[in-house]
Write a structure and sequence with these properties.
Elements (H helix, E strand, L loop, with lengths): L9 H13 L1 H34 L1 H5 L1 H29 L1 H21 L3 H28 L6 H25 L6 H7 L2 H12 L5 H6 L3 H11 L5 H22 L3 H10 L1 H19 L2 H14 L5 H29 L1 H28 L6 H5 L8 H5 L8 H6 L2 E4 L10 E4 L2 H9 L4 E2 L8 H20 L1 H8 L6 H53 L8 H10 L4 H12 L1
Antiparallel strand pairs: 1-2, 1-3
Organism: Quillaja saponaria
Protein name: Inositol transporter like
Subcellular location: Membrane
């Protein structure tokens, strides 16, 4: 998933509850900024349901797979630019103003999508929304971490991660609410502007980050905010710590270069940072190439691939997978400090690979047992309505539903049973209406299947295996793996690799399903996951319970997994 947050153990959550109960202002800061995570999550989930109805309104979108992929993925492309612009704005104008600008851009994008008269305008709206998401996804956690007491910082920053998965869950609920409302997808996409308005209003009454103010030499303003966050007897100590931290940061920034290009070159020449980047980029790329955002962005479509033609049913079943993702984030918070980052990721990858392989087998079986095409059923609707590829095919007698869909036609199910031989018809709005007018089910993305529910259950299990490990841990690793002076540039490089991988996966998923079928596509992601598992095993060290200096010393020597270290010792002894 896109967007990072740090972890917190049970003690920290208990302390967080006590502290925020005494000082509600702290939670107000965290939740107000955390709405940025909600926007991020909502946009990730909402397009998956809206796309089902956009295809019905615009025939070009239904016919052109690349257009569907572009509508989905342009938000990711916008987010890559937004994250880069957001980093500059954070330093130049402050965290608060960056969040306010992100809200305005996101709101404008939501309105543009809601009133779009053509797919091209939807794409423009998606780019604007992506810009807002990119700015918010990196600014919100930063604001929360800098405006939180250090002893509960991890727990409060974790609220941003929870709001991301909560936003995804909310988007599926909203999608389900508007399935029967005129304008369906316009409402789904337009409602996204409301949280942006709420956050904009709330942030107007909140202060700037005390750390940014102190760096901008606004010491008294920074003190005034700290006085609202910390007890009176801790203020001077916090100001002293803030002073030392800012001065060290300035000195370190000077030593690694002034502009981004110099910082990247300096980071890559440093052995410790380069090894940290091997680990950080590995986990971020692996997170995307296990195929998670195919589920997040296309979940209802995948459910339709499994044989559920009803859009409302597909959305309802997708709601379950989104809810499991939110639950998985909470599970991760409970176990990541107990069992370690590396172990959780490796266990997660084994589970993901297993689910993807079994999913591939289920979709293969579903395709192999697709209902046959009946010439009588097809000609029942007239020659002009029948799929032209079917009429001219020399092997038409052997056609089934899957073969019909491969030629961009549609399957009109038998009136007696979806699993009996049905009709292969041209995929047009008029013929779809004729099919439904006879109380038959229209299938354009998947075929009726007796094992479709098993595929949905496996999707849920996939999410359960993904979320506590590969869903949250890559961001935690990237917050711990780099030396302090390189943390910004290292985390930025890894985050960009995450967004770019996200863009590649979301832009190619539907094309892959056309070329390889659902079964082949999930098997391909299983292959990518195996490569990711091997890379994690050899490149990613365990950082649980280590001070930043200890991580740096470990990378200075060069990391090797325990199994290889054992063999090395045996050779040395021999």
């Amino acid at each position: 998933m896109e967007g990072g947050h740090s972890s917190a153990d049970k003690t920290e959550f208990t302390e967080c509850w006590r502290t925020t109960w005494k000082t509600p202002y702290i939670m107000r800061l965290a939740l107000s900024a955390g709405i940025g995570g909600l926007l991020f999550g909502y946009d990730t989930g909402v397009i998956s349901g809206a796309l089902l109805y956009i295809k019905e309104d615009f025939h070009d979108v239904e016919k052109k797979t690349w257009l569907q992929e572009t509508i989905v993925s342009m938000a990711v492309a916008g987010a890559i630019v937004g994250a880069a612009v957001g980093g500059w704005m954070n330093d130049r104008f402050g965290r608060k103003k960056s969040i306010l600008v992100a809200d305005v851009v996101f709101f404008v994008g939501a309105i543009v999508m809601a009133v779009a008269p053509a797919p091209s305008i939807i794409i423009i709206g998606r780019i604007l929304v992506g810009l807002g998401v990119g700015m918010a996804s990196m600014t919100a956690p930063l604001y929360i971490s800098e405006a939180s007491p250090h002893r509960i910082r991890g727990a409060l920053v974790s609220t941003n991660g929870l709001l991301i998965t909560g936003g995804q869950f909310l988007s599926y609920l909203i999608n389900l609410m508007f399935t029967k409302v005129p304008g369906t997808w316009r409402w789904m996409l337009g409602v996204a502007g409301l949280p942006a308005v709420v956050q904009f209003v709330l942030m107007l009454s909140l202060p700037e980050s005390p750390r940014w103010l102190y760096r901008a030499n606004k010491t008294e303003e920074a003190r005034a905010i700290l006085e609202r966050i910390y007890p009176a007897n801790e203020i001077e100590d916090e100001l002293k710590a803030l002073h030392e931290s800012v001065e060290n940061e300035r000195a370190e920034e000077g030593s690694i270069g002034e502009n981004m290009f110099q910082k990247v070159v300096s980071a890559w020449k440093n052995d410790v940072v380069r090894r940290g980047l091997y680990a950080g980029i590995t986990v971020q790329v692996a997170q995307q190439f296990v195929g998670i955002n195919t589920v997040m962005y296309y979940s209802p479509t995948i459910v339709q691939f499994a044989g559920f033609a009803s859009k409302s049913t597909a959305l309802a079943l997708s709601l379950v997978t989104s809810g499991l993702n939110a639950v998985g984030s909470i599970v991760s918070m409970c176990f990541v400090d107990r069992y370690g980052r590396r172990r959780l990721m490796i266990i997660s990858m084994f589970g993901i690979i297993t689910c993807l392989v079994v999913l591939s087998a289920v979709f293969y079986q579903a395709a192999a047992h697709a209902p046959a095409i009946s010439s009588q059923e097809s000609l029942h609707f007239g020659n002009n309505s029948t799929c032209q590829a079917y009429l001219s095919a020399p092997d038409a007698a052997r056609w089934d539903c899957m073969r019909c869909l491969k030629f961009d036609c549609a399957f009109c199910a038998n009136g007696a049973s979806e699993f009996h031989p049905g009709a292969c018809l041209a995929s047009t709005p008029d013929i779809r209406g004729t099919c439904r007018g006879e109380h038959r089910v229209w299938f354009s993305d998947g075929c009726p299947s007796r094992i479709g529910l098993l595929a949905v259950l496996l999707l849920g299990l996939y999410i359960i295996m993904y979320s506590p490990g590969m869903g949250t841990v890559p961001w935690i690793v990237n917050s711990e793996i780099y030396p302090l002076r390189y943390r910004g540039v290292g985390g930025g490089i890894a985050a960009v690799s995450n967004w770019c991988s996200n863009l590649i996966v979301s832009e190619t998923f539907l094309t892959l399903t056309k070329a390889l079928g659902s079964s082949g596509t999930f098997l391909l992601f299983a292959g990518f996951s195996i490569i990711g598992l091997i890379a994690i095993y050899f490149l990613v060290p365990e950082t649980k319970g280590l001070q930043f200096e200890e991580v740096e010393k470990m990378l200075q020597k060069g990391y090797k997994p325990r199994a290889l270290r054992g063999k090395e010792k045996e050779v040395t002894k021999g």
